[in-house]
Amino acid sequence: MSEVRLAILGSHPVTYRVPLYQALSNEPGLDALVVYGDDYGVRPRKSRWGVDDFVWQMPMTDGYRHVFVPNRAPKPDPSNFFGKVNPGLWRALGDFDPHAVLISGYAGVYQLQSFAGAWLSRRKVLYTADTNVLGDRGGVRGRVRSAMLRSLYRGVDVFLSPGTRANEHYAAHGVPASKIVRFPLAVDNAAFRAAAERLAPSRETIRAKWNIPANRACVLSVSRLTPWKNVDAILEAAVGVPEAHVLIVGSGPEESALRAKASSLLPGRHTFAGFLNIDAIAEAYVAADVYALASHYEPWGLTVNEAMNFGLPLVLSDRVGAAADLVRPGDTGEVFPAGDAGAFRAALGRVVQRLDGDRVGVASRVRADVDRYSVAAQVMGLREGLAAIGL
């Protein structure tokens, strides 16, 4: 086959996928078309972070072939199951006539339309998602979901898996290891490294802007401020680590309560930076010394990848999908049981103490670890997946 046509069925433009699509546009023998079901992040719209007229501050559609299929949902919302309804999807697929389709996730009308269109036209299906064993549930709802997924997965030819927890999920749902290919979740490592180098001379100025004392270890968390992100646990853990200053980046429904709690628990030792777009987020990572994510459930946590490009050691709950693959306890970070306040406090204390030792060495090892989670590795995984189905 001289050229493989691959349709990538993307819900909407996502920052961490754009570098992959741009890389695929330069792959010899591959003609990739990204088919979007919504233009969220490209045209101004109120965001789920509460930002009015939100758009990503980076070129989201440059450098790769793409098409937007009109979204006819009554209330367009890419995060809602019924928020993307695209009657023109099948026609778009027919016009492109791909040899295979790559579908991301299952939790939406758009994704189920994608599966149906691929199966009815007898095209090969590659599937990727950050769904993992940490999200598998018991009870009646869990059994119903599991049965549905087993049925759906039988129609997938190759699974592009981000890591350990996803592999465990697929195994639990009857997917043979022979159908699973490594496809690491990644951010644009080169862009974040360049930002780190550019901003390094301004580190103290940036910290001063956010009232972070020079003699404090800045513990950063970047997340939407919702209960399941468990940001209040970071504030509580820092109480027992007097060297720590907590920097919270993000907004959401819990913001007022968290600000009040921080004022009570950590007077003079916390900063809320609010929501920062992609062009400003690097400043927070440069200001920080440690990255913490305490979520009750986090399918992966790409902010972890971002932080690692700045050489930040990690403190993650064991309910963060990335923890099993990106943390080397005792060296590049620590993992603690979600909900265990004492274990979290101790883990944070150990990481902060290590900053006084081999800080440069730890930062170097952190960056080396995230190098394995790159756009180049994703391209390699996709190529392997296509080869596995004869393309």
Could you give a quick summary of the protein structure above?
This protein has 391 residues and is of the alpha/beta class.
Keywords:
alpha/beta, 7-stranded parallel sheet, globular, 6-stranded parallel sheet, 391 residues
Q: How would you describe the overall organization of this protein?
A:
With 391 residues, this protein is of the alpha/beta class. The protein contains 15 helices and 13 strands. The strands form two sheets. It has a seven-stranded parallel beta sheet with strand order 3-2-1-4-5-6-7, with helices on both faces. Strands 10-9-8-11-12-13 form a six-stranded parallel beta sheet, sandwiched between helices. Helix 6 packs across helix 10. The longest helix has 15 residues, at 139-153. The chain is globular. The chain starts with a strand and ends with a helix.
The oligomeric state is: single chain
Largest sheet: 7 strands, parallel
Number of beta strands: 13
Helix fraction by DSSP (H/I, runs of at least 4): 25-40%
Q: In order across it, which strands form the biggest sheet?
A: 3-2-1-4-5-6-7
Approximate strand percentage: 15-25%
Rg calc:
21 Å
Mean pLDDT: 93
Detail the poorly predicted runs: none
Shape: globular
Q: By helix and strand content, what is the structural category?
A: alpha/beta
Q: What is the terminal-to-terminal distance?
A: 7 Å
Query: Helix count, per DSSP?
Result: 15
Helix and strand pattern? EHEEHEHEHEHEHHEHEHEHEHEHEHHH
SSE layout:
Layout: E1 4-10, H1 18-24, E2 30-36, E3 66-68, H2 89-96, E4 100-104, H3 109-120, E5 124-128, H4 139-153, E6 158-161, H5 164-172, E7 180-182, H6 189-199, H7 203-209, E8 217-222, H8 231-239, E9 244-249, H9 255-265, E10 270-274, H10 281-287, E11 290-293, H11 302-308, E12 314-317, H12 323-326, E13 333-336, H13 341-354, H14 359-370, H15 375-388
Parallel strand pairs: 1-2, 1-4, 2-3, 4-5, 5-6, 6-7, 8-9, 8-11, 9-10, 11-12, 12-13
Helix pairs in contact: 1-15, 6-10, 7-10, 8-9, 8-13
